[in-house]
Amino acid sequence: MTYTRQADFGTPASNAEQTVTLSIDGRAITVPAGTSVMRAAAENGTDIPKLCATDSLESFGSCRLCLVEIDGARGTPASCTTPVAEGMVVHTHTPRLQQLRKGVMELYLSDHPADCPDCTTGECEIRGQAQAAGVDTVRYGPGADHLEVPLDCTNPYFDFNPAACIVCSRCVRACDEVQGTFALTIEGRGFKSKVSAGTADDDFLSSECVSCGACVQACPTGALQEKAVAEIGAPDRSAITTCAYCGVGCTFRAEMKGDQLVRMVPWKEGKANRGHSCVKGRFAWGYATHRERILNPMIRESIDQPWREVSWEEAFAYAASELKRIQTQYGRLSIGGITSSRCTNEETFLVQKLVRQGFGNNNVDTCARVCHSPTGYGLKTTFGTSAGTQDFDSVEHADVMLVIGANPTDGHPVFASRMKQRLRAKNGQAGAKLIVIDPRRIDMVHSPHIEAAHHLPLRPGTNVAVLTAMAHVIVTEGLADEAFIRERCDWDEYQDWADFVSRPQHSPEFLAPVTGVDPAELRDAARLYATGGNAAIYYGLGVTEHSQGSSTVMAIANLAMATGNIGRPGVGVNPLRGQNNVQGACDMGSFPHELSGYRHISDAETRRLFEQDWGVHLDSEPGLRIPNMLDAAVDGVFKAIYIQGEDILQSDPNTSHVAAGLSAMECVIVHDLFLNETANYAHIFLPGSTFLEKDGTFTNAERRIQPVRKVMEPLNGLADWEVTQELARALDLDWNYAHPSEIMDEIARLTPTFAGVSFARLDELGSIQWPANDAAPKGTPVMHIDGFVRGLGKFVVTDYVPTDEKTGPRFPLLLTTGRILSHYNVGAQTRRTANTAWHPEDRLEIHPQDAEDRGVRDGDWVRLASRSGETTLRALITDRVAPGVVYTTFHHPATQANVVTTDYSDWATNCPEYKVTAVQVIPSNGPTDWQEDYEALSERSRRIAGAEAAE
Predict the structure, then answer these.
(1) CA 469/CA 452 separation, integer angstroms
(2) Strand pairing report for 667-672 and 640-644
(3) Taking the mean position of all CA atoms in its chain, how far away is CA 11?
(4) What is the mean pLDDT of the chain?
(5) Nearest 5°: phi and psi at 872?
(6) Which range has the top average pLDDT, 59-73, 92-106, 343-357, 578-592?
(7) What distance in Å separates the CA atoms of residue 522 and residue 536, rounded to the nearest whole number?
(8) Which segments constitute the 4Fe-4S Mo/W bis-MGD-type domain (predicted)?
(9) How far, CA to CA in Å, does 749 sit from each of 698, 705, 927?
(10) Cα separations in angstroms, 725 against 717, 732, 736, 774, 944
């Protein structure tokens, strides 16, 4: 955990298979063709001075520090822009080069403040490069123009000091090449040139900058400095870990000074993020030490009482006694648990084990069912596995991307940056084509330097109809890949499916009144997907959170199989998971009907494997899902629940129903970081630990199992896996795990897809994509290469069935929901950081025509009402949504957007239909009675005995 900088080789690595041998300073060196002279030297221990060069960016050649001499070549070329050649003879340090570099370095130092704070701490590269160039005195005076420019301190996380800027363009290039936002530019000339965040009136906060941190990381001086580094000081130790936000699973180096986290730096070797980050993972970690975090266990007999802080021992004893009492009084099936998609695989595995082994039933569920269970059902039915088919690197080989029901720039921003890189033409390679199927004009439809070839703004709830219409075009126009289908799929099932989609009632023209999509545009999109080369499908919650979510996933799989777009890089079916460990929560057996590895609880052989390992009889009947638990609670037969790291009151549909179920229970145990909305109804609160305080693993959207490493000791005293273990011990279970690695060993011996996974193996390889076993010891980046896991691919007829949620005179608009870049899920973490600067409240997006019809102006309070409930929020008038459609986020509990969503759900998995709610919008003058009552309830529920007196 000692602090060392990650090596920087100056320019990106070459992927060429052919090699070149050259001589550098008298040493023979062999490197891949296309490697720069600078990188060839660095990889072999020779550092050439540089300022504009860094290996996360393409070579630029502006600083002129990296000059070299090459036998037979004129002048002194820049080593960063000069590729190696066979037999080349390079000299990197000669008297001539030394003199040239000194002159260049003196000019840079003349334009850099002598009292630069980063220079004294070693954070500024310019002093180190000056020493490498042998410069200790400067003949020129300072460049006064830069020193007079004021600081830009508007960004919550970093400051821009133009006086320290040397105009190397690294920040501008990082914004362009890595992030793809193009928010920065260089304006002016000579000593008057400077970095600009847009127009003359813009600053970093008001500009198009998305605060990903790429510019800060690229800056070689103190011009862009993180506020935390300025406040705490330079780090002195670090550890590699995995981000705990979205399903991309970025790898970071957590850099510490003592026991304080200074910064999170994206790790270049991270296979999911390749050295990039977003505003959440890079900067929004302050919640870990937020004053509202609960660090002591608390109990209360009823929810109208204030909380009472107790010891861990008393909390565990009280929780166990209540669970035992309730089961004795109401029966074995009267209690259950919910696992977390924010916790590690090991912690999630223990919760479902606690329910099955300790509670003696299968009443366990997870938020993964609330968002992506149709993915599991649909892909297991068609392909044989409940997960996406590709790794993220596969996007580099895609010629066509179809994005449906996903908003990558907001929900999965780091992967979105990689998508944007592929969409732009680069190094002579044509950019990929993009098809977006979404009711809303997301940023991927149009943003700097990218433009979707087709945007199909469908009516919410008609995904199946649109995909069936695309299939109609592909089949009737002879665009299907018959050779692939005959070899890899069930031909009879394909013929049945092809006959179904070919019917006239499934044509784009016939379905246009249903979908709202222009038939000609849809036909062109279908043709592009079928004939445009490697075609990859990426989808999100706009696919799964529907009454036909499972049908839509199978319709997507049908398209991929029909066109042969499966089983190689650049193609596939790729669900973009929402939370950091949604995939892992599913893998670990968090559903009431499945054990780890997606094996049904009714399978006697699978059950016997666990029974022998755990020494207990397992119930063969599936347990209750979350909505069934709530229903049973209202009916008086379900009385206690243990909730690990989930805020079901804010995140689950129909908030009033969730509240009714929770209030009907006699023992609600919440295990979390903060007194969240669900804790309003809790009797026992067990403080949780952050990802910085634990060891374990997360599994991201590409099935990549990655290490989570403890950076600091848990502020609450226990990691989450230890909390669950102590609760199990209080229930008389003989659990004695000493470290999460032992839990992973148990997972591996009980789960075939994880058979080759261990902490030692992860330390060796960095990460592993399951399945990892004897057949694939290093994991499986791309699935279904030679054949489908289930054998032959299965085509499934997916008839369009309209949702039961209908618009009408009372509720004429359709509400759909989603996320925004700066916040994460219910906002419990990001709302406790400076990210609120960008999104302090949920807003209702409404089309100008709908707003005018209702007399609503931008920023007005409006009442959003459905058949389930109502809430108020401010309006945002925008043509990003179509007429008849409104949109909002769900990050702020003051809004409680889910008070209006319904109980309708996917026919196969009970995944809630968040994306289609019939609503009315009318002007309002402030919060509803329900909101005011809820706020009062929250204040009463969060009282802690003694806290008022202490304040």
Answers:
(1) 20
(2) parallel
(3) 28
(4) 92
(5) -125, 150
(6) 343-357
(7) 17
(8) 236-292
(9) 18, 16, 54
(10) 14, 11, 8, 31, 26
pLDDT at 893: 87
Eight-class DSSP state of 12: P
Q: Which residues of 762-783 are buried (b: 16+ CB within 10 A; e: fewer)?
A: beeebbbbbbbbeebeebbbbb
Neighbours of 2 (CB within 10 A): 6
Residue pair 457/439 in contact by the 8 Å Cβ criterion: yes
What is the rounded CA–CA span in Å between residue 598 and residue 613? Answer: 18
Name the phi and psi angles at 166, rounded to 5.
Answer: -110, 10
pLDDT digits (tens, 9 = 90+) for 812-848: 999 999 889 999 888 899 999 999 999 999 999 999 9
Of 56, 61, 94, 77, the C-alpha closest to 168 is 61
Q: Say if CB 25 and CB 91 are below 8 A apart.
A: yes
Distance (Å, whole) CA 263 – CA 125:
18
Reading the block at residue 186, the tokens are: 């260089």
Task: Report the distance separating Cα 852 and Cα 923, nearest Å.
Answer: 11
Banded pLDDT at 164 (limits 50, 70, 90): confident
Mean pLDDT for 172-188 is: 92
With a cut of 90, say whether residue 427 has pLDDT above it: no
The bridge status of strand 194-196 relative to strand 185-187 is antiparallel
Percent above pLDDT 70 for the chain: 97
Residue 143 pLDDT > 60, yes or no?
A: no
- For residue 712, what are the contacts with CB-CB under 8 A and spacing of at least 6? 256, 259, 261, 692, 693
793 CB contacts (<8 Å, ≥6 apart)? 382, 383, 488, 489, 490, 557, 561, 566, 784
**What torsion, rounded to 10 degrees, do the Cα atoms 873, 876, 882, 885 define?**
0
Integer Cα distance of 345 and 692 in angstroms: 15
Helices 549-562 and 367-382 meet at what angle, rounded to 10? 40
Q: Which residues contact 930 (CB under 8 A, 6 or more apart)?
A: 869, 870, 871, 899
In this prediction, residues 298-317 reach a mean pLDDT of 96
Identify the residue with better confidence: 45 or 946.
45
600 SS3 class: strand
- What distance, in Å, lies between the first and last C-alpha atoms of the chain? 38
Distance (Å, whole) CA 820 – CA 246: 12
Encoded amino acid at 763, one letter: D
- By DSSP bridging, strand 237-242 and strand 251-257 are antiparallel
Residue 309's Cβ-side half-sphere holds a number of Cα atoms within 13 Å equal to 10
Exposure string (b/e) for 881-912, b if CB count within 10 Å is 16 or more?
Answer: bbebbbbbbbbbbebbbbbbbbebbbbbbbbb
Counting every residue written for the chain, the total comes to 951
Distance CA(195)–CA(337), nearest Å, equals 53
Pairing of strands 917-923, 843-846: unpaired
* Average pLDDT of span 638-649: 95
- Alpha-carbon dihedral sign for residues 131, 135, 137, 138: negative
3-state secondary structure 172-201: HHHHHHHHCCCCCEEECCHHHCEEECCCCC
Q: According to the model, what pLDDT value does residue 141 have?
A: 66
Report the 10 Å Cβ neighbour count for 848: 14
CA–CA distance, 456 with 9 (Å, rounded to integer): 44
Domains of the chain: 19-132 (3.10.20.740), 158-289 (2.20.25.90), 312-370+582-754 (3.40.50.740), 373-575 (3.40.228.10), 813-941 (2.40.40.20)
How distant is the alpha carbon of residue 395 from its chain centre? 16
Confidence of residue 124 (pLDDT cuts 50, 70, 90): confident
Res. 501: pLDDT tops 50: yes
Residue 826 is predicted with a pLDDT of 86
> Is the overall model pTM greater than 0.70, yes or no?
yes
